[in-house]
Structures are given as C-alpha cells and as structure tokens.
Amino acid sequence: MTNTHDVAHPCGKCAFYKESVWQPVEAGGMGVLARGFTRKPLIANQVVFAQDTESQGIFCVSAGLVALRTHNPNGTSTLLRLAYPGDVIGFRSFLANAKHKTEARALLPSRVCIVAHRDANKVVRGNPAVLERLAARCISEIDTNHERIIATATTSNKQRLFDLLQRLMATHGERVNAHMRMQLPLSRSDLADLIGVQPETMSRLFTRLRHDGAFVVSGREVQMPVASGDRNAG
What is the secondary structure of the chain as a DSSP string? Predict the structure, then answer.
C-alpha cells in the first residue's frame, strides 16, 4: 500500500504552484489528489468542456490560451473572457454541482491540468484551505467583471483594445529585432466582444492604433515596436 506521505504534490514543479488552488493540500489528501490529477495537451480549437455538459472536475490552464464562450439560442456566440496560463476554469459549475454555462476551447496549442470531479470533491471536503482558494477565485472573477464594466464606462475603446493587445503580446508574442510580433489568436469579432464594441468599430480602432505607432496589424499578424511597450495609448 502506498504511503500517502511519500506522494509528491502533482503541482509541485509548476510555475504557478504557489497560487495553485491545490497548493494547501496536506499529506493525507495527496494520494487522492494525485489519483484524480491528469495533464492534457490540447491542439488549437480543441474543446476543453462544452456548454450545457456536466462538470468533469476543475481545470487549470498551464500553457497556451483558452476562450470561455457562451452560445446563444439564436445561433450566435459571445466570447466572455480569455483564460491565460495560471487561470482556473470550470470551478463554478463544480462548486454549484451544475452544468457548464460556457464552452471552453483552446485558441492555441495549450495544456490543462485536471482534477476529476469525484476526487476534487474529496480533496475539497478534507482541505478547507482549498475551498477558500476556490472562493477567492470566484471573488476575483466578480471583481474582474466589475472592473470591465467600469472600464467600458470610463475608458476609451482604443485604450481597451490597446490593453488587450498588449496583454496578448506579453503572453504570446516573440521579439523580432525592434518589434514584438504575434499571430492574433482571435477574430476581430471576438476582440469586439472582449472590449464591448460593435465588430464594425474594430477597423477604425486598429487604424487609430497604427496612426499612434502603437501596433501594426496586417491580417492576423500584429507587430508592436518594443520602444512603445510602456506608451499609453490615450
């Protein structure tokens, strides 16, 4: 029989270990956590979980980029947010014991770490600190949504697009000489969803950013002068 005190923490070597919701798991629960833990590589456009399906557990994005999207009854969809490395997804349906209200889909080759529902339940019941961290993630999401609402009312459309492109560039861009460069992983319609504007507005916003010297967009290729990284888009 395996001594649970000898089981290594499955998140122990992760760059996000200190912030992991599973970090507080004590030695007595490590065997259960390790039993339910899997790492899953994803290809671009692969679904992590589908809307209106039962919770399969708790997911942490450990690499890549994942889109959280809601599909509407009229056949349209709305991109609600992006999950970057270190973000936890699927935990609200887990906590509510309810079906997923969104779809999660990889936008780029990605990786998620999953703790299966049954084992996650056992770990959470035996480790109140894990539940506290999940609750903190819920509060953080609420705060982020609140900030987005305020930003929509108080910040220019151009600034919100600048901030989003800068975040994507910092996470997924590569330096080429005096520029940072990336292939935009989102459609312009998705970008419009995230910053709260109509899709037809995007061309004007990209033109204004180009005139500012902040970004140059050609199709899906985006370039940003390195010297402009700290420049405020106004």
Answer: ---GGGPPPTTTTSTTGGG-TTTT--HHHHHHHHHHEEEEEE-TT-EEE-TT----EEEEEEES-EEEEEE-TTS-EEEEEEE-TT-EESHHHHHHT---SSEEEESSSEEEEEEEHHHHHHHHHH-HHHHHHHHHHHHHHHHHHHHHHHHHHHS-HHHHHHHHHHHHHHHH-EEETTEEEEE--S-HHHHHHHHT--GGGHHHHHHHHHHHTS-EEETTEEEEEGGGTT----
- What phi, psi does 90 have (nearest 5°)? 80, 0
Q: Which tens digit of pLDDT belongs to each residue from 130-174?
A: 999 999 999 999 998 899 889 888 999 999 999 999 999 988 889
Q: Cβ of 136: how many Cβ atoms within 10 Å?
A: 12
**Sole residue written with tokens 């987005």:** 148
Q: What pLDDT, in 10s, does the model give residues 83-119?
A: 999 999 999 999 999 999 999 999 999 999 999 999 9
Which value, to the nearest 10 degrees, does the dihedral of the CA atoms of residues 183, 187, 193, 196 take? 70
